[in-house]
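hey all, quick one before standup. I had two proteins in the batch that finished overnight and I want to keep them in one place so we stop losing track of which output belongs to which input. First protein below, input sequence then structure tokens straight from the run.
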Amino acid sequence: MSKQKQMYDYIIVGAGSAGCVMANRLSENKNVNVCLIEAGPRDNSIFIKMPAALTFPIESDVYNWKFESEPEPELGGRRVGQARGRCLGGSSSINGMVHVRGHKKDYDSWKKFGIQGWDFEDCLPFFKKMESFEGGKDPQRGGSGPITVTRSKAEHPLYQTFLEAGQQHGLPNAGDYNSGDQAGVHVTQATIRNGIRCSTSLAYLKPAAERENLTVMVGCLVEKVNVAGTDAAGVTLVQNGERKTLHAGREVILCAGTIGTPHILMLSGIGNTDAFKTFGIAPVAHLPGVGSDLQDHVVAPLRFQSPSGVSIVKQLNTLGRLKLGAEWTLFKTGLGATNFFEVGAFFASSSDVDYINMQHEFLPFLADFQSGKVNIADGFQYFVSQMRPYSRGSITLNTANPKDKPAIRFNYLSDRRDVREMIDGIRKTLEMAHQPAWSRYRGKAVDTPNVDATDAELEKWLRIVANTEHHPTSTCRMGTDAMAVTDSQGRVHQLSGLRIVDGSILPQIPTANINAPIIMVAEKIASAMIHQN
């Protein structure tokens, strides 16, 4: 790893799911110098490395930006927390490790935004390039990529009952949902390598860290992109209280995420310049789409008690946790090596939708993962998520101070079509939870509607419990229309030398947990950049 200096060919802002990929791939060329800048610390914590400890980095002020929305008008004015990684690996270092590519139609539909080269068949080579799948290489899967993808064991009786109940309700067994048809119940695939979280920091950055042409800077808050005329010239950042200016000979690449990237752009005078007047920010480029079109998966938990001793809780008492910690520390096996989300499903809320639009994630105990609480109890819970919402939110400035977080408005359930799809999906889930397979294990419902609840009752309950799946996208989306921010390669319109590669450029949120799609996008754009140079 080279020593810090002032001039680089590429400056990458944000060492997350995309930034680590870009740093690795671009620095493969020994003739270019790459600087990767991260606001947070290194990812050395045992709580990041141990999959079962996933609530700890989410609770942390050190590794999580801990964003919070403005009061959500359709959720009774509640503020909704949004976990975003703040360390090497970014959100891949604090997420649930569930590996989902998405549906083929997700990517095939992106052409409606005026961009080419993003059909699923265009993306498949990069999904394969990124992964080493436990099942081995085949025409659909990669066998030698940086990201290790393993199949969960799903041996606990509650996991098996989830799979059985879904099939009793009429869902197929999807098998490898990342290879064929997503629809149906499945055993989850996870980004876990030999019992350790396989973040992009571990998979991409660690192998590249000793390259002489790669500089990694941590604890650096980027305040703005510096633009000379219409050329991105570098960035201004603060490290240990000292303000510094770094210069980019070729490009500044923003990988700061769906919230961080539009925030930096607006602080730099790039975005809806009419809104900057209030803050005294000099306009650089009028791109009104910066911060608009915010999308996220809304989720509702359906919770049921189970007989004492059935759920995993009996293995997570004080003695059990000591055993878990010892087994994982010594052998990287046991419960410490699981993310607990070992089964799931994709299904259609009704026959009116074009293709599967709902997701189930499942836990074999009761816990409040939305707020990071670790108090657990006997039971099980379904998480019901709508995959392609119609509601749109925004990121805007609160102040001109880079230390202040932006204003986040998700506007969950503001479109009646989202309410309809969620009600239908919840009703189907309640039916699944009352299949014969659950008769041995299903106890009293916990803050969950009855299976025969009316639409009005379900909607009232939904607005009380609805929360985020922590999958924000699309605030600087690719496209050719007036609200698009980048072209099909992430290059920012109206400017040169400025590119965005992260979840913010996705034209539409996919039918997937977003980590795998973001890594794929980074691999694809990096490849195009390398071949162009």
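OK second protein, same deal, sequence then tokens:
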Amino acid sequence: MASPSPNNADSLIEFINISLNYGATKALSHLNLVIRRAEIHAIVGEHGAGKSSLGMILCGLLKPQNGHIIINSLPHRSLNLQSARKLGIEMVQQQTLSLNPYFSIADNFALDNRPLYQLWRKKKALQAARDFLEEWGFTHIDPAVPVNRLNVPDQLFVDILKHLYQRPTLLILDEALEKLTTANYNIIIGILRRLKQQGHSILLITHRIDDVYQLADRVSVIKHGEILLSDEVKNIDKINLINMAYTQVSEQRADNLNREFYQLLKYNEAILRNLPINLIVADHENQIRLVNDYCRQSFELEQASFINKPLAEVVTSANNEVIDFLDHALSYREEHAFYQAPIRVNQQEIIGNIKTFPIYDGSLFMGTMLTIEDVTEFDQLQKQVVLSEKLASVGMLAAGVAHEINNPLEIIYTYLSFMKYKFRGQELHKALNTLHEQIADISNIVSNLQTFSDRHVENEEVELNEVIQNMLNLLKYNAKYENIAIHFEPEDENILIITNRNEIKQVILNLLKNSFEVMPSGGEIRISTRIFEENGGKNVQMTFQDTGPGIQDANPNNVFLPFYSTKHGKGSNNFGLGLSISYNIIKKHKGTISVQNLEQAGCQFTITLPQAAN
């Protein structure tokens, strides 16, 4: 019988060439494995790979036909229940609870198939159980409660505590965490980490990959009764671990790749289908062989519409860089990633993070796994944040510029007033009046710059339809002169909002002025208001449409950037601040403003604001 390897001096248990058969069925075949002291070691593999058999050999429920086990540097041909417990090995099984439902929690802790439990020791056992529960912080658990009064998840929790009560050197959890409640699961995780710190070892048999990465120090993949890999968890990528643990490949080679690929998916299709990511699997010819349920639901794919189709027909892009990326990744069979890529899946356009993972059997290329993370909402939010930051920065600049201009402007205005009343003469007074008007215009420009900043303004209750109508009355002669027809369709009832009257007028004026300037040869402007409910509250919506040329920009929302303008040329004195100021005013009043080009012609600005409480 072999002695322990000198390289495994820190090992607690070593399996040496272990084989186990169930009749003609091989469960374990020449298996070798090391479990170290003070570690959480995970065992993963497909159903029937031999995971539970491994645990039952250790706890004395099964005897291997060949090989031996080294525990604490001592060899053992096999173990029974008593010898395993003397060595401090406890196992929580996935199928059978070791609890007696008619006994109390304390009775179950004390009994546990050990020498006859004497009734006269019940009081002592109850106190010992209470001390154990208090030690671990479970003061809310009454050890005198019969087990059959607990619900099933709590019984599972108590079953784990019962094995912890024995202070095991090695605790085996055979898929024992899966049915716990979230609260109890978090408690057990804390206990397992504490046990490891105290020098105990835990063998975690599981099919939940997330448990491996949350708990384990090392992981072993078991396949066909043999250990395929043992390594530290940090050294193995999650997708690669799934590939190794839950894929099947036959022994045939290149002449039967399609049959091999069928075998790859056959046994583990349920696992792949239920992964919470958009997953597409293609074979060595880039023909789609599997799309998991999450991806199928996300992109409304029907089974017959994609199976055996080329991957490039289902996942496409209008961006040449993305197409080149996919061609390169599939042609060179390498692991690649492309972030925030504009793609189309089954005619649905999204912004996605794409990753490709080649599948190999040794040196033989089998196919490709493609994952797609939809980040459309994140991409839009990121753009909004960037836009807001730009506007905030220019707002600070605008406030400083306005302050500096106002000081000399006030001095000039004062001197002009003094000259008007000091000196006489009709021509002089006429010149001074003209200068006063020009300075008033400059003052308005400065006021606009100050509005662009976040300075405090007084708000009041304003009836929106009335404000719009008053503005239209002032502009009707200009509209007639410019050959522009304005149609206003107000909400039937009064629309009240809390705002600064001058600021909301400025927004309306900026939008109307913008439409006037893009229609020098005439056109139409349509304005409407309405009240709608959203998220339990009432909101106000204003829309401004014109029949101009629309916004000639790939991203129409760029018009809200400061100093951005598409109106240039002779006679244009547009500085591109009007819509930026409007954006800032609406945002300050907890509203939104957006723009879109219309299908026929022109564009539409949409503003939403909260309605004033009645």
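Flagging for whoever picks this up: The chain is about 40% helix and 25% strand. Residues 98-167 form one domain.
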